[in-house]
Amino acid sequence: MSRSRLSFITLMVLALVVTACGDTAPSPGASQPAVSQPDVDPTESVGGAPSTAPSESQAGEPAPSAGRLAQVQDRGQLICGVNGSLPGFSFLDEDGQNTGFDADFCRALAAAVLGDPEAVEFRAINADQRGPALQTGDIDVLIRNTTWTVSRDTAWGLFAPTTFYDGQAIMVNSTLVDATTIDELEGAAICVQSGTTTELNLADRFAALDYQPIVFPEIDPTYAAYEDGRCDAVTSDRSQLVARRTAFANPDEHVILEEVMSKEPLGPVAPLGDDEWFNVVKWVVYATIEAEEQGIDSTNVADMVETSENPVVQRLLGVTPEGTDPFESGLGLEPDWVVTMIGAVGNYAEIYDRNLGPGTPFDLERGLNSLWTDDGLLYAPPYR
Amino acid sequence: MSGQGMGETLPPPRDVIGPAAWLRENLFSGWVNSVVTLLTGAAIIWLIVTIGAWAVSEARWTVVTNNLRLFLIGQYPADQAWRILLNLGLISVLAGLSAGAWGGATRAMAVTLSALQLMLAALVVASPLGIIPAGVLVLNAALVWVAFGFGLRGWIPRRPLLIAWVLSLPVSFLLISGVAGTPFPSVSSNVWGGLLLTVLLATVGILLSFPFGVLLALGRRSQLPVVSIMSTGYIEIIRGVPLVTILFMADIILPLFLPGEWRLDRVARAMGGITLFSAAYVAENVRGGLQAIPSGQIEASQALGLSGAQTNIHIVLPQALRAVIPANVGLFISLLKDTTLVTIIGLLELLGISRAILAQPDSFGAQMEVYVFIAAVFFILCYAMSQASYRLERALGVGTR
Asked: Residue A7 has what pLDDT?
């Protein structure tokens, strides 16, 4: 009897402890919000507060409305919302590193703002969480294959320049149907994931055609059913079709039709109402594009700083030739932020090739994602 | 039988015992039964052969072994993973000592803990993680029995052991989350994942919701209208809402009410949500137990001059809680499985991390392997929990008194 008595006294004590700290929650993190109080630890702000940064970081008075740029620099870490399970764009590799095209743009932003490409806290964000996560300011930036639409632009956040121009396409099983255009798919069974814009676009495109949609709630069963031959065709974003085709047993039997059924511009999104931060996100994307255009990459950026005589390159890299005034971008970043960023993650072409280009299982052609000089859509405004 | 004459020797009955007789009696007692037996037998053999052939020859188990570290601890830094092994070691010692000191149900727990670690070690050996972590796990499993030997001799008094158990949860947390500037550098909960996160969410949910639930159950039966109405209101509101909703609220709505600079840890939010949710169900289970106690006992204790609190602590609760062990264990098993719901708020517990792994180019089309592996892990955990609870029931004599 005394044994159970003892254990019950312990239990009640535990219960009291729990209720006593009921509203602070059983959290290891209860001690962590202290980090959000700036200037507790001067080493916290990696890369040092740049001289051009807003004065909050020196003033030591963290006004609640301090700009996000200052917040990120005080925190010493960028909180980047990613998909987390999209092949080629963001996923965990076998070492647990977030890898992919979107993840690399998070690193580029961290390198530009904090000087350290690894100072990123990746947050896996669900499709439904995207809007709220931006609206509550829980994340600093959303880089999660999000299509730029007018309603999202007005409600969710500010869309930075598109990093990846995607488009919906159709993949056809050539052993079942012989079609080279969508109009030849009359009467075909088409696999599609439900609840996506993909499904709606399919209905739009096939409004005048007879077809049989076979709908799946999840992405893996969609492709499994298609590969088993239950559908004649499957539709999704082109990048996804290409990625999935590489995993098929007989990739050669599957043909992706040329026709683009919808526009899917995917890019970073910054929270509404902070123009300074939005400018930083915007120009990080532009700088990767501009660097490619100027032939600056991670291997030659250090040499370019030393040797380049081109004033465009010098401005971009923050080099001040003798006898001239230093160029002020007004972004609130270190003058050589582009050097740090390109040295860490490379220019647009390097990011693309590393994650989606030849040598990866996807081997996606640049297509629309080429520089404007190569008939693509990538066009960075002048950096001056 | 009665028709036989006396003195006549009957031949021994044929085939009433033995395997052949059993078969005829149970499986082939008529032609209908024989057909059914043959058909189901063929179906079962076909299933086993198909699944076995898939598991042995077709399945690409390298997806599991190559990503084993992710499955087990998520993105927790590899060079800090020893802290989790150390933590397991501490718990092993504690469990072993308790098993020696108390016996009974604690012994079942020690057996389970060492068996689970041995299984884990076998998995780790098959993966590129190498022999060292596997060796530590085997060592941990052995530590349970070394500590058991110490505990048996009665060298360890029970009271410090109890205190150690109460402290083990905060200590584990400190070990895993770490403190900056110590040999245990701080590891953000953002990178906790896999089995580690699943077990942490479930453990915290179970350990914290239990006392909270008991208080709510007592509150609901309280004579004080404020306490009783508030408890009832809490229980009914929480029970009327799906767990997914509560998790979404904790993840999305809560930050809207907090001042802009405030960031509540996401794992803590999920733990809070799970605890609050499960407490309401524990409360109703416990209330069932409370109502099973005859009021005569309470009146008798009042007649003896015990106060209300004394009556509850010494008379009512010990019996009530013992009676609801099966119901509560069922609840806790489902809580363990419900932790997979945190995937939808972007936490990478066992299910969430497998989605991230399935997005690796090397893992395309390996969803069968990954989901079969996860199902096996969950089955082992749930089975271990239910076995431990049977032992606990037996030790406390539930249903035999």
From this structure: 52
Neighboring chain B residues of A22 at a CB cutoff of 8 Å: 212
| Phi–psi pair at A381, nearest 5 degrees | -60, 160
> b or e along A215-225 (b: 16 or more beta carbons within 10 Å of the residue's beta carbon)?
ebeebbebbbb
Kindly indicate the confidence band of residue A45, based on its pLDDT and cuts at 50, 70 and 90: very low
A96: chain B residues, CB-CB within 8 Å? 69-70, 74-76, 78, 191
B318 touches chain A (CB under 8 A): yes
What distance in Å separates the CA atoms of residue B211 and residue B353, rounded to the nearest whole number?
Answer: 31
Q: Do A92 and B263 make contact, defined as CB atoms within 8 angstroms?
A: no
The CA distance from A3 to the nearest CA of chain B, in Å, is 10
**Which regions in chain B score pLDDT beneath 70?**
1-7, 14-15, 260-262, 398-401
Global confidence as pTM:
0.82
- Residue-range definition of the domain harbouring residue A363: 65-163+267-384
Structure tokens of A140?
Answer: 């600093």
Cα–Cα distance, B227 to B283 (Å, whole number) = 14
Tell me whether residue B122 is in a domain: no
> SS3 of A122, please?
strand
Contact B276, B238 (CB under 8 A): yes
Domains in chain B, number: 1
In the stretch 42-61 of chain B, residues with CB closer than 8 A to chain A read none
Which residues is A269 bridged to in the sheet? A142, A159
State the Cα torsion A144-A147-A151-A152 to the nearest 10°.
10
Question: How far apart, in whole angstroms, are the C-alpha atoms of residue B105 and residue A98?
Answer: 43
Dihedral pair phi/psi, residue B14, rounded to 5°: -95, 140
CB atoms within 10 A of CB B332: 23
Which CATH number do you get for residue B345? Answer: 1.10.3720.10
Which three-class secondary structure state does DSSP give residue A336? coil
Q: What are phi and psi of A160, to 5 degrees?
A: -75, 170
Task: Give pLDDT tens digits for B320-357.
Answer: 998 898 899 999 999 999 999 998 888 999 999 998 99
B256 in contact with chain A, both atoms CB, cutoff 8 A = yes
- What CA–CA distance (Å, rounded) separates A281 from B38? 69
Nearest CA distance, A5 vs chain B (angstrom): 7
Looking at this protein, which amino acid is placed at residue B204? V
Q: Which chain A residue shows the shortest CA-CA distance from B353?
A: A92
CB B83, CB B176: distance < 8 Å? yes
Same domain, A157 and A292: yes
Pick from B264, B361, B364: CB nearest A29: B264
Nearest-CA residue of chain A relative to B213? A15
d(CA A152, CA B153): 69
**Boundary (domain end) residue, out of A263, A291, A321:** A263
Enter the ipTM. 0.81
Token readout for B379 is 């089955």
Instruction: Identify which has the larger pLDDT, A38 or B11.
Output: B11
CATH code: domain of residue A86: 3.40.190.10
pLDDT in tens, B236-266: 999 999 999 999 888 877 877 777 666 778 8
Residue with tokens 């606990």: B392
Q: Do A18 and B212 touch (CB under 8 A)?
A: yes
A138/A238 same-domain check: no
Contact criterion met (CB below 8 Å) for A83 and A107: no
